[in-house]
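Lab notebook page, bench 4
Experiment: in silico fold of construct C2
Operator: M.H.
Input chain length: 278 residues
Purpose: comparison with the prior construct
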Amino acid sequence: MLIIGSHISFSKGYEDMGKQAVELGANTFAFFTRNPRGGSIKALDVKDAKRFVEFAKENNFGKIVAHAPYTMNPCAQKEELRKFAKEAMAEDLSRMENIPGNYYNFHPGSHVGQGEKIGIEYIAELLNEVLKSDQSTTVLLETMAGKGTEIGKSFEQIQQILEKVELQDKIGVCMDTCHIWDAGYDIVEDLDGVLKQFDEIIGLYRLKAVHLNDSMNVRGSKKDRHAKIGEGMIGKETLVSVINHPLLKGLPFILETPNEIEGWKKEIKMLKEEYKEK
């Protein structure tokens, strides 16, 4: 079974997000835990969360992927920004326990001139302060395109963070196809080779989710501009190969393509038609 969905607005509440996912033909989805360009957060409705848990079971959902706001920079130079990142993640993870057993994805952040080593130390430090042994949510580091001073542009940088995390069973990786392409990984000509490299450096057992996006840019551009499936430089053929790759079977695939509801419906329908069960 292909586990696929798109981003859905959290303003709808958990149960309504689940219903919209079903309308899209999806069996998973992603949502921002709070205002993605700010930090404000919607009041938690515990009863709504419980209804969603039952709805997800009834509709055979895969794991859903919560997304931290873009404003959260765990390796910022300013202490108050790192403090916001820590407090926001801690609050988000606490709320995630109302929909237990899912994923929480975040961008590692930008070191803004301090250097990669310090940035990586700050990210690992935050994770070691926030992760709890009794949490049911797995936190995912997202692979990044490498624009500016972003951390996470290489598998090596992701691994350097992972190896410093104390609670190893609470951490994983979300691979973004647009990001790794823009970072220089050639998934068009050598998807097998890229996955082998990921496995050798990080370990495929760490890969928990995939952001399935085409790219407006040539490989290695480090620009991070998503395109609709088949309308970018990666192309439909490669992205179909991604969802059918035996090493990626069973992972949730999340569309972050520049679409509205009807566009996501079409992409989900097309990808389900291209998916091979075996």
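Observations: The longest strand covers residues 171-176. The mean pLDDT is 96.
Next step: discuss at group meeting.
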